[in-house]
């Protein structure tokens, strides 16, 4: 269950003051909470590509080289998608006859060859891109919603989102799609993989009528409440089907809360610095809960440094499938953590595009590069760290610190506000450790061909498969590719 | 149980990432959690005076008029203390034959006439002032530790705090004093009031040997862990004595975490803005838990806006004692909240000295004055909002906004980062409501004689009662009173 732009601080169990996530808080009480869990990237598409490949974006190709250290994703103009060279989780699970379904946002490329049913999923209900809009179909089509390999309609058309009121029943549809899939597999006694990826907490945030106005936090909170309710429903379904003791469930989010969007359209990163798009903790620290009654001890907290990429390796391990042995994997098999409460030593790397910006080892984090967003954007009022500013840390120019990295102790200073003195023994000792870890990482690193460099208006969702039947095919403009502009 | 400078974000249940407060988290699971609970003041002494009087500092005299909107407290030089005109909680509880003890920090004046045994307490073990030091006794005496009305020694002398290692067994002593008192009253079947006020999380933070180095958060976390352990011991003692179903227990803190002290000496205010000394949420929002098995429903969250002053009124109510009827009370009787999960409509006022800076009503907060700390201090490196800066909000000069208050919706925006547009209907509507509430408050307000205006080196703890017996009397300098300087 992968949320969209939901922040670490959005869950009651992680300190959201309104405490409006009873299902997730219960899930934590029945499972294992991970306060130190990370996205593979501070932006959606690369993070999602890493979840399904178990590899860093720089290795799986979900990055750009158009400019230095830029976040890239898959808007409608993107030409690329997830490479055929990558092996996706549902493709491997086929070895054990798993049925796989993705419900919600795909985001690994919307052109035909990149879609989920081409990459190991048996079913899909959802959209290939973000639900931005509504668009005037002449310059930009609205995003299609697929049922398997054909579109069923488009956001803002057949699948309404009222941008003014925030009303949409799409989360309810996604919930039903998830429940139905689970029930069918349970009846068929077939092992299954459900990738439940709703997008209601991504701007423009939405909720169905029943939840609108219910939250103390406004519309964003309404969306969280509906997702929380839905997660409760999914867990209950597992219990009522009697398969809860045989199902590994994991909840997390794709990147930090989009704090630049303001409180009406974004969530909370709790005590952490900045948010989405940045390599500060607010950009990549995620809420995370593992649940498997009878196997994962209830009510435990694991301080394991975890990553969405670990879900790849862990899922394979749980399913009894061997991971690929012909490539470097970044994900870890968390089984010893989940089942024996072990702690595995491993670093967390924070990338922005092709640049490793920072590394966390234990409680320490070293920033080799810092950047919030550019002065140009900032001066237009776009602020990736609203209300937060740490001099020399939340820099508006790309600042290199390779020779003297900025070091924080995230246990004492989760907000990355107090760099450790470069004159201290503590500093020297950690830099020595970090240097060795980074050196090893970089020596083994073979960057993939970047998939997110080229854009073209001709590739937008003008005529998705199935459009004929609906009479919803649109005419694409002539192909005029350009190097995508990635401003942050 | 009143903590010293502990922040809202320091408890696992309020999202501290290291989750190192198992006893408090259990207390919350067995009791009622208050995410919207407030100190009466962003500084220690006034907040503590309000707890014991049920009245705002401006009404009970614990404030200064030496300069506009300044926080004042009771350092050793202070001439004043809690006024004889005030009625203290233990004085009233005497009506029902309660035995009262304070363990730990008093802070309502250290001159003989102001000490706890003069003001309704039957017993005291602790200190009248903060444990700053160590001092050279010739210019400044170390703070005495009293047992009832006589000193037993001084901090850094008989009661050691190793500033270098952070080791001190004082919390253990305070724990034993508390447990012993509880057990004696239970044996005597006498109703009791224990005011347990340890100071280990106030700089210089300390912990005993067993806890030093145990926390993932460093020394501050060690202190929190020891307090958490101690609180667990106190609750367990109530259970083992069989009086838990007949005892109202409340946990909170005196003001926000002292974030200006840096992460080695201070805690976390979670998602809130700034800290101690300020009237932003980080200065006055407190962790709070009520516990009374069998009477307060387990595992509940109350969104009641609460105040430490309510503990005065609620304690009286629970003890069956009538509150004073000859004066304005600011505390509410929270019984309907605790026992019926009701919500009482009430504003929270945020004062700095004699100035009402802000008011919260429901989810909205209006700032009429803003100030973090002065440019003079800030330029010396003292920062009350480290890493946080909201333009026009965390101002370094005292800024008046009376005509156009800054309004925040604390549900959507707990970090006070996004002022609501003055052009919106929402703004206009709330300002109308707030204006009426503030007007009523100010019309009823009769400020007390300020107690915290005068200082004098002669009144320091040179020769506390009992010093003769210990051979620890020091010679006071000649009296030369001055108007205390309150820089923030």
From TrEMBL, chains A, B:
3-oxoalanine (Cys)-modified residues are 44
Q: Which cofactor does it need?
A: Ca(2+)
Asked whether the keyword Glycoprotein is assigned, the reply is yes
Q: How is the cofactor bound?
A: Binds 1 Ca(2+) ion per subunit.
Q: Which residues are glycosylated?
A: 169
Q: Which InterPro entries match?
A: Alkaline_phosphatase_core_sf, GALNS, Sulfatase, Sulfatase_CS, Sulfatase_N
Q: Does the keyword Calcium apply?
A: yes
Q: Which domain of life is it from?
A: Eukaryota
Q: What is its EC number?
A: 3.1.6.4
* Pfam short name (any one): Sulfatase
- Top enzyme category: hydrolase
Q: Which family does it belong to?
A: Belongs to the sulfatase family.
Q: What is this protein called?
A: N-acetylgalactosamine-6-sulfatase
């Amino acid at each position: 269950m992968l949320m969209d732009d939901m922040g670490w601080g959005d869950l009651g169990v992680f300190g959201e003051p309104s405490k409006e996530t009873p299902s997730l808080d219960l899930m934590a009480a029945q499972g294992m909470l991970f306060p130190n869990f990370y996205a593979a990237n501070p932006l959606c598409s690369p993070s999602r590509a890493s979840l399904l490949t178990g590899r860093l974006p720089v290795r799986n190709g979900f990055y750009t080289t158009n400019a230095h250290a830029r976040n890239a994703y898959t808007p409608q103009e993107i030409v690329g998608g997830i490479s055929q060279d990558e092996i996706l989780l549902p493709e491997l699970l086929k070895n054990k006859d798993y049925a796989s379904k993705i419900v919600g946002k795909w985001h690994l490329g919307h052109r035909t060859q990149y879609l989920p049913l081409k990459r190991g999923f048996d079913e899909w209900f959802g959209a290939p891109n973000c639900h931005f809009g509504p668009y005037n179909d002449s310059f930009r089509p609205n995003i299609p919603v697929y049922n398997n390999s054909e579109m069923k309609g488009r956001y803002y058309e057949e699948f309404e989102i009222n941008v003014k009121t925030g009303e949409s029943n799409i989360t309810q549809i996604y919930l039903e799609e998830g429940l139905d899939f689970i029930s069918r597999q349970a009846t068929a006694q077939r092992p299954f993989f459900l990738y439940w990826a709703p997008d209601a907490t991504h701007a423009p945030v939405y909720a169905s009528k029943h939840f609108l106005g219910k939250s103390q936090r406004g519309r964003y909170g309404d969306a969280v409440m509906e997702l929380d309710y839905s997660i409760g429903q999914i867990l209950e379904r597992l219990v009522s089907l009697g398969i809860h003791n045989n199902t590994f469930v994991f909840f997390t989010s794709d990147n930090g809360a989009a704090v630049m969007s303001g409180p009406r359209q974004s969530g909370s990163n709790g005590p952490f610095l900045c948010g989405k798009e940045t390599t500060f903790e607010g950009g990549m620290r995620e809420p995370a809960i593992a649940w498997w009654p009878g196997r994962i001890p209830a009510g435990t907290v694991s301080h394991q440094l975890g990553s969405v990429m670990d879900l790849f390796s862990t899922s394979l391990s749980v399913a009894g499938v061997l991971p690929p042995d012909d490539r470097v994997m970044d994900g870890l098999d968390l089984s010893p953590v989940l089942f024996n409460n072990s702690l595995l030593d491993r670093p967390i790397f924070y990338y922005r595009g092709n640049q490793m910006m920072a590394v966390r080892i234990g409680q320490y984090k070293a920033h080799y590069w810092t950047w919030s967003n550019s002065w140009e954007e900032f001066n237009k009022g776009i602020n990736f760290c609203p209300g937060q500013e740490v001099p020399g840390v939340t820099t508006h120019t790309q600042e290199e610190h390779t020779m003297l990295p900025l070091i924080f102790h995230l246990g004492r200073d989760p907000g990355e506000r107090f760099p450790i003195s470069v004159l201290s023994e503590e500093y020297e000792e950690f830099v020595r450790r970090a240097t060795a870890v980074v050196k090893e990482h970089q020596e083994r690193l073979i960057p993939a061909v970047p998939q997110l460099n080229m854009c073209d208006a001709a590739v937008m969702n003008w005529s998705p498969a199935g459009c004929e039947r609906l009479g919803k095919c649109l005419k694409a403009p002539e192909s005029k590719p350009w190097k995508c502009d990635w401003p942050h």
